[in-house]
Amino acid sequence: MNNYPFFTMDDFDFDNKCVYLRIDINSPINPITQEIMDDSRLNSYSETINELSDSKLVITAHQGRPGDDDFTSLKYHSRYLSKLMGREILFIDSLFGSSVDYAVSRMKKGDIIMLENTRFYSEEVSINFNNFNIIENTHIVKNLSKLFDYYIIDAFGAVHRPHTSLIGFKKSGPMIAGRLMEREISMLDKFKYSNQRPKIAILGGSKVSDAVKVSRSFFEKGIVDYILYGGVAANLFLLASGKNIGKRNIDFIKNNNKNYLELIDMARNLIEKYPEKIILPDDFILNPSQKNITLKDNVPDNELLADIGFNSIEKFKDYIKRAKNIFINGPMGMYEINEYSIGTREILDEISNSSAMKIVGGGHTISAVNRFGFRKYMDYVSTGGGALINYLSGDSIPVIDALIENKKMFGD
Ligand SMILES: Nc1ncnc2c1ncn2[C@@H]1O[C@H](COP(=O)(O)OP(=O)(O)O)[C@@H](O)[C@H]1O
Ligand SMILES: O=C(OP(=O)(O)O)[C@H](O)COP(=O)(O)O
């Protein structure tokens, strides 16, 4: 038996068994060619998949969110993974139903199948996850649970999402943490339990809802001393503090967050309670004009605050220099475009030069770290973005909770 409160792959023998493996290979996608722009997440599953080479292995995963450019089929991911692993992977363009049943019934030991993007099915994300009866009664769970002996969940990047393909099988059979989950948890615990101060978080990117939610826990529980905000997360806090961030930036927040008024309220409360811990940029590079402006200037309606400006970079660097523990999730701006990549690059450069413990995570953040050549300077590169910050925040994590519950049910 292992030392974790959940099953790991050490606890079972998968020889000739039918195994469900949920991974997170959600990757940055080129919106024009649909090519995978960074294969870090795909690369992180070699240990798990190699260890399952005696099983009949069926892989599920998601890519993107409905409505977004990167909401694509997993056909390309299956080809990519097949090449990386040097193993044939049969792609089935459904998640469940007769074509899946038939393909699985014909599997032999050593075969691998990958199913279609779980988020092509609304039952994956749009049901009431507080009621497990509903989850258990989805077509996804009813159909797939007929097929498997074991359910391995290795999607560390999505552990903070209580979605059907991630937690829905907790009563169907043993649910097991994969090798990536084990590695992530043991590495992140080193940071979580380190008492070296100051500890700082750097939160950027576009998923502001995760950023605001965890900020509260980070401050309330004293997990970090400062949070430096970039990207859309910074825009949200600036808006909440009464700054004029311009129509296009407000619309970006509104259009991507149904609960944006609630987010602004939460951000405002945090600013009132922890003013000295919230570190915000005060100048920016505009897109499309590429002008450097401060927030004292008016932000024209058609401009995005696409990168943090030079004063803000220097201000952030001062905090990074003094830190003993640092983690970063989310780029400082639209790093994919050269003209707006300087903030992200400079901040990653300063982190790389620091002697603090340095953790970095998130699909786009890893892609930036790889692209700008900083990977070798990081102590740990987590595959999780939202997952990383939620895990470090000490809040309850739906997938980990489900794994723990499952071990209690199937433990003996
Ligand atoms: N100020 C901004 N306005 C619009 N998009 C932004 C801004 N800053 C960053 N982004 C975008 O955020 C995306 C990355 O965010 P996110 O998915 O949250 O990061 P991660 O995958 O590392 O967790 C990038 O595509 C980047 O272009
Ligand atoms: O890429 C992911 O999150 P991340 O961008 O926070 O690292 C995960 O696959 C979760 O995706 P989601 O935030 O669309 O639920």
Automatic annotation (TrEMBL):
Pathway: Carbohydrate degradation; glycolysis; pyruvate from D-glyceraldehyde 3-phosphate: step 2/5. Keywords: ATP-binding, Cytoplasm, Glycolysis, Kinase, Nucleotide-binding, Transferase. It is an enzyme of class 2 (transferase). It catalyses: (2R)-3-phosphoglycerate + ATP = (2R)-3-phospho-glyceroyl phosphate + ADP. It comes from the Archaea. The keyword Cell membrane does not apply. Substrate binds at residues 24-26, 41, 62-65, 119, 161. ATP binds at residues 336, 362-365. Its EC number is 2.7.2.3. It holds the Pfam family PGK. It is found in: Cytoplasm. InterPro entries: Phosphoglycerate_kinase, Phosphoglycerate_kinase_N, Phosphoglycerate_kinase_sf. One of its GO terms (biological process) is gluconeogenesis. Coiled coil: none annotated. The keyword Cytoplasm applies. (2R)-3-phosphoglycerate binds at residues 41, 119, 161. GO terms for molecular function: ADP binding; ATP binding; phosphoglycerate kinase activity. One of its GO terms (cellular component) is cytosol. Monomer. Belongs to the phosphoglycerate kinase family. This is Phosphoglycerate kinase. It comes from Acidiplasma aeolicum. The gene is pgk.
